[in-house]
Amino acid sequence: MILIVEDVEMIASHIGDICDQLGVGFSIAGLGRDALAIASTRRLRLAIVDLRLPDMSGVDLIKQIRELPEPYGDVPILAASGESRRVIIQALRAGANGMIEKPYGLDALKVKIVETIRS
User: Fold this and answer.
1) pTM for the full predicted model
2) CATH homologous superfamily, domain 2-118
3) Which contiguous run of DSSP H or E holds residue 40?
4) For residue 76, what pLDDT is reported?
5) Among 25, 49, 78, 96, which is least packed, fewest CB within 10 Å?
């Protein structure tokens, strides 16, 4: 399952459509606390984390996911952001495996998802 952490419904829906095309189940969380609850109880193939969430920063969420016990904290994480280079670096240092820069094309996102879940 892929966890989509995105508070903008349209973006979350587009990512969900990609998951459907790939035949991969997904769950959407619009808040960091909801995402953490899912990540701490389900084995995930991937988490796509928006770095700007209503209740916490995506960087803080990535750190909290990384602190979860195995196997939950070992999930590959893609940080999605249109933020500054500084925030992107913070996300990578916090444990993100890669970045998806907004705005992104759906084909490019699909490729990035496939590459990440196959590695």
Assistant:
1) 0.94
2) Response regulator (3.40.50.2300)
3) none
4) 96
5) 25
